[in-house]
Structure formats: C-alpha cells, structure tokens
Amino acid sequence: MDVHDRKTRSKNMRAIRSKSTKLETSVKKVLETLSLKMVEHPKNIPGNPDYFVSSLNIAIFCHGCFWHAHECSLFKLPETQREFWAKKLRENTVRDLKAIRLLSFSEIRVLIIWECAIKGKEKLPAPLLPVLLSTWINGKYQIGIINSKGLANYNAPDEVICQTTKLLNTLR
Ligand SMILES: [Zn+2]
C-alpha cells in the first residue's frame, strides 16, 4: 500500500516540480554560455516550456524520464498503485504531444532534452550536451530530441542527426 493519500501525493509532486532539476540547470548553463536570453516557464507559451528563447523563437523542454514516460533504462512503472501511475503518466504524455502540436502551429521550434542524456548508465559524455544543443539551435530541424544516443529529428527519431560516437571522435 502507498502510504500517501491522493492529496499528499499531489502536494509532493508539486513540490518536486518547483525545484530545478539537474537537467534544467545543465541546460540553463549551456544557454547562458551561448549568450542566449531565455524566459523560464513562460505562461503565454503553449506547454509552458522550461526555457523559451524569444530571439530565436525556440522552446526547450527538459523531460524527466519517469514523469514523461520515456522508453529508456531510467523508466520503470512503480510496483504499487500501478493503475494510478499509468493513468497519470499517460495524461502527461498526452499533454506533451498537445504542447508540441500547438508550438508547431505557432511556428516555434521545439527541442526535447531527456534526462537520460545526462543521467544513468547510458548518459552522454559531459562535453556533448553543449555541442548537441548548439547543433540543433543552428540547424534546420523544427523539432529535435536529445537523448542518450545523441541528437535526433522528432519526426524521424531513428535518424540520428548527430551521433555521439562520431562527435566524440571530432572532439578528441
Ligand atoms: Zn530517458
């Protein structure tokens, strides 16, 4: 049995959400290094992205692999209250899809950065996040994804634009 009742649990979840995650902090640092002015969680932009850079019209989401149900080694459905969690996480992913669609209609470019890019056994080597981020920013892809495999095009996720191994060779 889960010790938290529904009310406490959602209170806890809100508390967790209001703190910046490690991924958010890392991404913020990169944006600052690139001298990009950003707004955090702008209310007027669909999906309240973690960062919005108005000069480039780009929205960046830093997705926790659990909260956004990423198919990766960091995700595992909790053993207890499985139905609750399955429903909750499904709602989150539906909300994410809706946000991406609304942003695309507004011609805002979107980048989704997954937690597993910087955490877990498959994480990217540390110097790669800034490289991948600026590659996407300067590139032409409307919607990009950064995960533990590198940078990919959202509409063709198997097509990795910037492969980690290749990049590592150029950095050496
Ligand atoms: Zn992940």
Care to describe what's here?
There is one protein chain. The protein is α/β, with parallel strands linked by helices. It has one domain (6-171): VSR Endonuclease (Endonuclease, Chain A, 3-Layer(aba) Sandwich), CATH 3.40.960. The protein contains five helices and seven strands. It has helices spanning 6-18, 22-33, 82-105, 128-138, 164-171, and strands at 39-40, 51-53, 58-63, 109-114, 143-147, 150-153, 156-163. A seven-stranded mixed β-sheet has the order 1-2-3-4-5-6-7, sandwiched between helices. A hairpin with a 4-residue loop joins strand 2 and strand 3 (58-63). The longest helix has 24 residues, at 82-105. It is globular, with a radius of gyration of 17 Å. The N and C termini lie far apart (51 Å). Bound molecules: zinc ion. Zinc ion binds next to loops.
Radius of gyration: 17 Å
- Tell me the span between the first and last alpha carbons: 51 Å
- Mean pLDDT reading: 87
Structural class computed from helices and strand pairing: alpha/beta
- Going by CATH, the homologous superfamily would be VSR Endonuclease
Say which molecules are bound, naming each kind only once: zinc ion
Question: How are the SSEs ordered, and which strands pair?
Answer:
Layout: H1 6-18, H2 22-33, E1 39-40, E2 51-53, E3 58-63, H3 82-105, E4 109-114, H4 128-138, E5 143-147, E6 150-153, E7 156-163, H5 164-171
Parallel strand pairs: 3-4, 4-5
Antiparallel strand pairs: 1-2, 2-3, 5-6, 6-7
The structure holds zinc ion.
Summarize the structure.
By secondary structure, the protein is of the alpha/beta class.
